[in-house]
Amino acid sequence: MRVTALCRRTAGPGAALAAQYGARYHAEAAALIADPDVDGVVICTPPSTHFEYAAAALAAGKPVLLEKPMTASLDQAERLVGLAAGSEASLMVGHSLRWNPVLLQVRELWPQLGTVRLIRLAQRLAPTTLAWQQDIGQTVGGSVLLTGVHLFDLVRWFTGAEFISVDSRQRQVLNPVVEDQFLARAVLSDGCWASMEVSKHTQSRACWLEAVGDDAQLQADYLAGGVLLRRGSAEERFAVSARVPTLPAVLSDWLAALQTDAEPPVSVQDGLATLQVVAACYRSAAAGGEVLI
Fold it and tell me: Considering the entire predicted model, what is its pTM?
């Protein structure tokens, strides 16, 4: 692949970046999508624009790599699934944590756990510095939508199961308009319990995973690196680095899927499933209890 064109809403930096890569600068997304030299479109804009841009690219018959969350709402996700089904072009969602080396090691070890009864995923992040995430006119959700989708997708990816119900609590700590902390507990279709939490108000970072199975359990740090597998009194450590950029691998696998006409590694149906959990989390918080997906 090579960069042929880019669109950025601030013209000066956009034109400079385009010149850096020898690409054409477009002031409007529609012009980029219509550009005959553009064969595929990567959308990494705020979620409020995802549906509009992805729908336009699919209508133009151009494959899409779409940042997570796939859309701003469940309704938009359902509509985008329909549009993708009627398009000759494919859509892949950029759930990039699937390419994290630590989490790839976890997935390789997963069968050794036996029946998994409990999964816990937690991310501790610094407060956002992006103005649009603190502007009620631009953002369409907080930590549940913007970060939680990563965790919801990982739970499905590891287990192969679907979410049945969720009980979620959210609050605003530092963000003035949307939640920047949430805790969600879910029941999966295979009976496993999942606990997922995000705190986006601390001045430090951490990303942890724990899984408890009948035969073994594991712990993983997918920010600092490393996996610990426990079987009985035995411990096995895997010194896997997490300091590997995931986006080159995401782009490579997207290209491979396009070249072989294969299903994208993260499909539009995967994107829809995460938005179903997002919607349930918000419904649960409003109702103050467990809701069905």
Answer: 0.97
